[in-house]
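Annex B.
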Amino acid sequence: MEAHESVDFKRLMSEESTVSTLSSDSCEYYQTEIFDLLPSIQASRPEQNRHGFSEETNQGGREAGEKSGQLSRGPRDKTSMQPLRNLPMCIQGKRGAKERRKLEINDINFWESWRKTQSTNRKRVREQIKEALSGLVPWRQTLRTIEGKFGVGVKSYFVFLRYLIYLNLLHCVLIGGFIVGPSIFYRTDKYEPLMFNESDSALDFFLGTGYVNRSLVFYGFYTRGSLDLKCLNTPLLYLAGIFSVIFLSLILVVRRTTVGYKHTWMLGKRYSMNVSYKIFCGWDFTIQDPTAAALKHGFIRNDLKLFLEEQSFSLRAAQRTLGEKVRLYLLRIVLNLITLSLLGGAFYLIYFATQTSLKKENSGHHWLVSLLLQYFPPITITFVNLVLPHIFRKISSFEDYSFTMQVNATLLRSIFLKLASLGIYLFFVFTTTEQDAKCKENQFGREMYKLSIFNFLATFFSVFFFNYPRKLVQETYPRSSLARISGKQRFLIPFNVLDLVYSQTVSWVGVYYCPLLPVIGIVSLVVTFYVKKFNVMRCCVPEQRMFRGSSSSVLFHFMLLLGLFMCAATLGFNHYPLQSTEGRNASSCGPFRNEQTMFTVTGGCVKSLPSPAQTAIRYLTSEAFALPLILAEIIFLTSYVSRRRANQRAIERLKDMLVMSSSDKRFLVKQHATMLRQRNKHH
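Transmembrane channel-like protein: predicted C-alpha cells.
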C-alpha cells in the first residue's frame, strides 16, 4: 500500500516539479535505494519470501505501472475524508493529497459530488454543535482549574460527583413520572389532608417523624387512589418507577465501568508515555491567557511527576531479592489480619449502637437526648467510617505498593467497611423492627432518611468547623506547635470518594421506602460540590505524589456497582418473607395495604391478560426458558471473545508498525546527517 501511494504521489506531483526543490532523479533515488534500505522493508522481506508472495508483488507492480494513467476506482482511504490539517505529512504531501482530491471530485458525477459535500457540511455542523454543547457542561472551567492545580486525581473526584448529580436527576424524573405524579393526581378525598399538627416540631425534619412522616417523602403517603385498573394502578406504577430507577442505574453504571476499564486496559497497562513527546509536543500554542498557560503548565508537570513516580517504583520493585519478597509477603499477611480485626470490632460497635437506639425505653428522655439516641447508629457508622480509613491508609503505606496501588487498596478496604457496616445496620433494623408496627416501611425509610441527612451534615461541618479553622491557624500562627502538629491539609481522594459512594448507596437502598431520597441527594450533592471546591481551593495543598486517575475512576464506578447490588439484595431480602408467610408480614400502609403484596398485584395483572400473553409470561419465568437463554449467552460471549482476540492481534500488529515507523525515522535522520556531512566536505 505504501509503494502504490508513493507511485501516485510521483505522478500527481510531476507537474509541480519546477516548484519542488527535489529533482526527478532524487525522487527516484529515494523511492528505490533508500526505500529498499528502510528497516521496515528489510524486516518484511523475509516474511514475504517465506509465504511466497514475491511473484504476486511483482505482478501487482506491473499492473500498477500499466494503470498509472488512470485514477484508482477502488475503496477510498480513510485519510481522504480527513481535513488536510489533521494528516500526518509534510506540506508537499498535503499538496499532493489536495490535488488527488480535486481529481476525485472532477471524476465523479453530480450526485456523488453533492453527497460528499453534504457529508462534509454535516460533519462540520456536528463539530460546531459539539463544541457549543461542551461549553454548557456545568463546572467545566472549575474542573480545569482543579486539574491544573491538583492533578487529574482530584479532578476525577469532582467528575464523579457531577456524574452522580446527573444520575439522581434521572431518578427524580422517573419517580416524578411513575410515583409522585399519579399518586397526587389520583389521590381520593377519603385520606386525611396533609397539614401541620400541634405535635409537629422542627425536629421532625431531622428525625423524619410527624409532618415529614405523613408527607410524600415516605412510603406511607402513596395509596392506591382512584386509578384502580388491573394492569394500570398505583401499586404497579410504584413498582415500575422503582425498578426503572434500579435497571437504568445498572445500565449506566455498567456502561461507565466497562468503557473506563477498556480505556484503562489500553492506556494504563499497555501504554508507555513518551516523555520527549510530553515535553516538546505537549504544549498548546493557541493559549493566550496567562491563567490558562499556568493551568497547562500544571497539567504537564503533574503528568511528569506521575510518570517518574511509577518508573521509580518499578525500578525499586525489580531490584528486590528473594528474601525481601518473602519478608514483604509475610508483612502483608500480618497487616491484613490486623485489618480484619479492626473490621470485626467496627461491626460489633454498630450492632451495639443499633440495639441501643431501637430500645423502647428511649422515648421518655429529654428531646436532645432522644435526638442523640435516634442518631446514635448514624453517628457510630460515621465515626467508624471516618477513623478506620485513615488507619487503612497508614497500613497500606507499610505494604510497599505504588502510590496508585495504595490508593486503590485503601479504597477497596474502606468500601468494604462502608458497605458491610451499612449492610449489618440494615440487617439489624430488619430483624429488630416490631411486627405489629403501624407502618414498618416508613420506619425503615426514616432510618435511611437519617443516614442521608447526617452524612450531609457531617460533610458540611467537617469542612467549616474543622478544616477551615485548621487552615486559619496555620496561616495566622505558622510557627505554633498546633500548626506543626496538624500539618498541611491534602485532599484525600479515597475517603471523599467513599463518602459519595456511601451516600448514593443509601439513596438506592432507601428509594423504595423513601421515594424522595434522590431529590434530597441532588440538593446535598450540589452543596457538597461547592463545599468540597472551597475545601480544595482554600484549605488544601497539592499532593506531592500523584496517581493515575483512569484506573481509580474505574474503581469508583465498580464500587457504585457494588452499592447497586446491595440495593437489589436489600429489596429481595425485605420482600421474600412477604411471599413465604402468606401475608403475615404484609404492609399496613402505602400502595400495598390490605393484605396486598407486589406478588399478588403483579399476579392479578398477569391473570387479566389474554391467554397467549399469559402463556408467554409463564414460559419466560419457567425453568424451560433457562436453557435457550444460557445458549444465547454462550453464543453472545463467544462472539465477543473472538472479537477481542481479533482486536488484540490487530493492536499487536499496529504496535509493531509503530515500532518499525520509529526505526524508519531514525534511519532517515542518519541518512540525512550523512548527506549533510558529505555536502559540507565537497564545499
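The longest helix spans residues 626-682. Residues 631-682 form one domain. Further annotation is deferred to the next reporting cycle.
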